[in-house]
Specification:
2 helices, 152 residues, single chain, 0% strand, mainly alpha
Amino acid sequence: MPQLAVETFPSQIFWILVGFFAVYFFMSTVVAPNLEETLENREQHVGSLIKKAEKLNSDAQKIEKNAFDALERAEVDSAATESNLIASFREQSIKEKDALYNIFAKESRSKSELLAEASEKCFNDVVNDIEDIVQAAMLKINSSSSRKNVRK
């Protein structure tokens, strides 16, 4: 076997070293910087998506809190208005009382329903935005992982 002949050892060692250093130089100057840049870009992108998701989550919580506060204020206002109407009803006839109470109940219900629908729409919009960002982040992470697997 020629590779075991002692006379060829110096040339074999020389070419092994040349090949090793050529591969090492290529890996350290081309492949490693590209990998580092790709990983850094991926980390920055995922970090920005997480920050956006956290901001949207906090915005959703604020909107939800504001909606519940507005609903509570509406309930308190409607209770105060109802008590004022009841006091004024005492001075009016029974027919007038019934008519005013029905009008107030309809207005109160319609305003409460409108407020509940608006707050639910805002909350659903924020939840959908958060879900879209999380899905985009997961797709980006999955595509990065699959590219990594293909390279291996």
